[in-house]
Structure formats: structure tokens, C-alpha cells
Amino acid sequence: xxxxxxxxxxxxxxxxxxxxxxxxxxxxxxxxxxxxxxxxxxxxxxxxxxxxxxxxxxxxxxxxxxxxxxxxxxxxxxxxxxxxxxxxxxxxxxxxxxxxxxxxxxxxxxxxxxxxxxxxxxxxxxxxxxxxxxxxxxxxxxxxxxxxxxxxxxxxxxxxxxxxxxxxxxxxxxxxxxxxxxxxxxxxxxxxxxxxxxxxxxxxxxxxxxxxxxxxxxxxxxxxxxxxxxxxxxxxxxxxxxxxxxxxxxxxxxxxxxxxxxxxxxxxxxxxxxxxxxxxxxxxxxxxxxxxxxxxxxxxxxxxxxxxxxxxxxxxxxxxxxxxxxxxxxxxxxxxxxxxxxxxxxxxxxxxxxxxxxxxxxxxxxxxxxxxxxxxxxxxxxxxxxxxxxxxxxxxxxxxxxxxxxxxxxx
Length: 411
Hints:
Layout: E1 21-25, H1 40-43, H2 52-62, E2 67-71, H3 81-92, E3 96-101, H4 106-119, E4 124-130, H5 136-142, H6 147-161, E5 167-175, H7 183-193, E6 198-203, H8 218-239, H9 245-268, E7 286-289, E8 294-296, E9 305-306, H10 314-318, H11 321-330, H12 343-351, H13 354-371, H14 379-388, H15 393-399
Helix pairs in contact: 2-3, 4-6, 7-8, 7-14, 8-9, 9-13
């Protein structure tokens, strides 16, 4: 079985625009009540979900594309999810799948990842666990007590796929009024305690379930991003372990450059729409499929139709008058002035603006280098953070994240 990450669609750029990313909202069900959820209103409609056969038709009609981005609801609540991913891998030759989860159903995630690694050996699987802060902060923001479950899931993923480069282990944190004061400490703790590939932070977006959770502006977000920049150099070093010198240098250049470029675009669009410095390719290279069959060019724009009216045929949808009118209305972002902070669309658009992005990558690497300062993530620092934020060290020891007092002195 291949265990080295290779052939990722994130490693290539193209000026020829075609369908490259499908965003599939797998279910309208969720086992959390996140304060910052932008999809809560859609889920509350409790509309019938696309059936497996309807999703099968969508896959069979799509042709080849690179990336499948899962969403929801909570994707683990879709029982046929492994079959769905395998189907897109078989029919559409996807290279990357992004699998977000709140991490509550850890054992099931491990079972599904093992199955996918066996049945789709060349597929890069980015498993992204939501973790929004220390203990009670995370639980408050997520609306259910799930911090230790999510941490245990991350530990299980690392235990089972530590040396498997095809399983990319991510943490996703949304910054709100609940965690804004501790996010810097949290980035340090997660880097030191959890052996993940990267940790993304972003401001809450869209219309949130709870009013008043958005507290950031461009200035405050940039301050946070600058303060945590050194950790992205550390993550780049972690990702490059075991690579040759040239491969390691290129990996660092692209990883640090892309992360910083994305963060810069997010910050400049937080207070008001601001051109990205490149075309937004929503609708040209992306398609959003809601759990009930509605479709969009972008998650943050209104639905423009329902797949059932096109016999679940993606080629017909992408070539439809509705999509053509939507692309014209967006006008690569300039006409609609709908520039946003959505990292998925920023990253997808980057792929199709290669000449404009090279300069951004050099600039972003230079900025990050200037922000680099020594950071301390030794055991004492981590223990101090656990005490400061009142984490249950017995539970952390039970999970296997730290040594308990009884075992700390055992050789």
C-alpha cells in the first residue's frame, strides 16, 4: 500500500479552467449545536436528503475532477459515506478528499479511514477535526460536551496513521467571542500535544446560529495570524521530515506561502469585500451540492437550482443557463463584489491563477520569515497551559496524550 503522499491536486496549477472541486453536503443532520454554524438555517429545514442513487447519478455524470470536499451537517452521520467516497474515487478519479468532522464518533472514523486506505490506496485523505479551544471553551462553542472525544479521536488517528502520508491530519478552529482570548495558547498546545499536519484558524463566516459571536476585525485577525506564524514554519518542518533537501525546501515554500497568502486574503476581506488579486473561479471550477439537491457556485451565494431538475447530471448542471448566468453575475468576483474569507474557494482559485500566485507565494514566505520568533512548546509549557485552562489531566492520561502521575516515573 502506498503511504507516501503523492499526486495531490494541490501540487499543480493550471490556467485551463474546468470543474476541479465538488463540495458535497452529505447530510443535513448534526450531533452538535455550534454557535458559529453558517448552515444551521439550511439544516433546520429538515428537507429530504439526496439518496445514494441520486448521488451515484451525479458521480457517473461528472467526469474526472480532482477534489471532493465533504461537508454537512456532520459527515459521519451519513451511513453510506465510505461507499460515496469510493464511488467518486472509482468514477471520477479524485486525488484528494477533504473529510471534516467534529470528532465525536472516533471509532467510526478510524474504521472508515482504514477501509478507504485499503480500497482507495492512492487517494489523499485530509481528515480535519474541529477543535475550538481548551475544554469548556470548545464545549460551549460546539454546544455539546465533546472536547475530550475530539482529542481522543485525534490521538486514535495518529496511533493508526502516524507514518501514513496519505492521511493528512488537520485541526480546524473557528475564532469567536468564546475563544478569541485563548487562541494563541491553543495553537501552541495543539502543536505540542497533537501530532497533526497543520492547524487552520479562521473567523466565523456567514449568518451564524448564535448572534454576536463574530468579534474580529481585520486588525485583530492580522495580529493573531502574525503571532501564530512561527508555528506554520514548524508545521512545514514537520511535514518535510524524511524528504530530500530539494523536496523539503519546495514543500516548505508552497506550504508556508499558501497558508500565509490565504490568511492575508481572509484578513483583508473580513471588514469589507476586497479583491483577492486574482480571479475567483466559483462556478467555473467549483460546484456546491446541498444535502437536499440544491446547487450553487459557492457556499456563500444563493442556490440557483436543484439537481433533480437536471436528472442529477453534473455536466448538464455545469453547462446550464442557470450556471452560466451565475458565473456572469459573479464576474470572477469583480462584478458581484462578493469577495469573501472562504479558504476553500481561495485555495481552489489559486490553482487557476498560477502567474499571479507565484508573486504572492514569494511575498508570503518573506513575511512569515520576518515574523519568525522562537516558540517554547516543551513539556513544562504544555503542563502550564493545561493547568491554566483547567484541563482534566486524568482524562488526558487516559486518552494517552500525557503521562499520568502513576506512570510518569516508570521507565
